[in-house]
Design brief:
Elements (H helix, E strand, L loop, with lengths): L2 E4 L15 H14 L3 E5 L5 H10 L8 E7 L11 H8 L4 E7 L2 H8 L3 H16 L4 E7 L1 H7 L1 H14 L3 E6 L6 H15 L4 E6 L6 H10 L4 E4 L13 H11 L13 H11 L17 E2 L2 H9 L17 E2 L7 H10 L7 H17 L7 H11 L8 E10 L8 E10 L2 E9 L2 H13 L10 E9 L10 E8 L5 E8 L2 H20 L8
Parallel strand pairs: 1-2, 1-8, 2-3, 3-4, 4-5, 5-6, 6-7, 7-8, 9-10
Antiparallel strand pairs: 11-12, 12-13, 14-15, 15-16
Helix pairs in contact: 1-2, 1-11, 5-7, 6-7, 8-9, 9-10, 15-17, 16-17
Length: about 525
Amino acid sequence: MVKIYDTTLRDGTQAEDISLLADDKVRIAQRLDAFGVHYIEGGWPGSNPKDFSFFNKIKNVDLKSAKITAFGSTRKLENRPDQDQNLKAIVESGVQVATIFGKSWDFHVRNALHISLPENLTVIEDSLAFLKLKMAEVFYDAEHFFDGFKNNRDYALATLKAARQGGAQCLVLCDTNGGTLPHELTAIIDVVQQELGPEMELGIHVHNDSETAVASTLLAVRHGVTQVQGTVNGLGERCGNANLISIIPNLQIKMGYNVIPPENLSKLASLSRFVDEISNKRHSRHQPFVGRSAFAHKGGIHVSAVQKDPLTYEHIAPEIVGNQRRVLVSDLSGQSNIIYKAKEYNLDLGTKEETAEILKRIKDLEEKGFQFEGAEASFELLVKKTTGCYRPIFSFKGFRVMVNKFRADRPPLTEATVMIEVGGEIEHTASVGDGPVDALNKALRKALEKFYPELKKVKLEDYKVRILSSDKGTSSVTRVLIESKDDQGNKWGTVGVSKNIIEASWQALIDGIEYKYMRKGGSGCDPK
């Protein structure tokens, strides 16, 4: 069996355009767990407060299959293992699986660590031996292993043997600079197996600087590697890491390896889009397996052939990975994707006619820029409203936002007013805030909390903005994604889209509040 080790939350966040809050990381970890990965690397607990916060939060999350791992480095030469702050932070993180990296390239030992080659072997062995006494599982990442092997074969192998002697249960061979080509990589793996024996479990961790990370990883598995490390969508430093979104279906569908539960493979596209949405990145429509264009066909011979038999121009059925076929000329298909989403959120789509209406509304909204991955609450509200199972909690009368700046050396003053009607009673409120969205949010809540006091327990947890049509300058379409949270720890995402960022924010704010009330059971279900 091949085990999947996801490092999106650690190595993936080293990409220059990625920044995840601790709560973002928890949400992604929950999706990875539901998908069926075996290990989720949460971060480096000794390096920054954000990772420390993640490990504290994830303790309260009930994961079904995945094990959270803590990452760090081998001890400093001057420290005993039990006095090394990095190793102590890994133990104190509360997880039962640790991964530490050490230097396998003699060039790095001399020029980065400034210690002798024998001293480095000692540091590797006793760091692992210390953790082995404290943790259920300990893995060793052999940093720069392939470059080290090419420069000094015997020493690179000696570092692996030191890690094995220290108690590492898996030795992960890292192409840290991403410059080793697949044929070189597999030849080196063969030598490692001859030297260490078949009983030593090996892993692979490849960066994508030569655009061969996926190919190298797949071939590494063919040559006996049983732990695969990578990130969702290939996120990572420089050119990124090996992309698990391509690796997993290739291993499971094309190569016949048992990787994740077969029924979970249909969640692949949803997982890919979810991580991009939470990371505030535009999802690549051309990404293999999961991109919007991955199974899109346009005109002429291709369309004619696919309509007769999709196998003519598709390497797999798109539904296997949760994607859908798109024939651009006639805009066929789509209901299967909506049905899948509804099942994921345990929603009743109602009659065939209602399902068709939901599909039409989804297509219309997505054409305008809406994206419901990461905004599951807005999707559920759309379904409920279309099937007649939702009653609005207020009538909208109007809002106004004013921004006034009186002095150049002081921030502007922002005020928002909101007018709504509940049960025939008009409520008109005003609030100031740190910005237009903050002021609008406060004014809206002030108006509603008089009628729905439970909304006081809901707070805006996160706010993300994406420009969808940057070629139009200041008149570009904007998508706003909001995450809300209640006092029970429940979280939900909502979305709004408009050329006006305030209007987009208003849409997402309203969905967030209405969703909370609906989940409480106060919305009713009005039959059609």
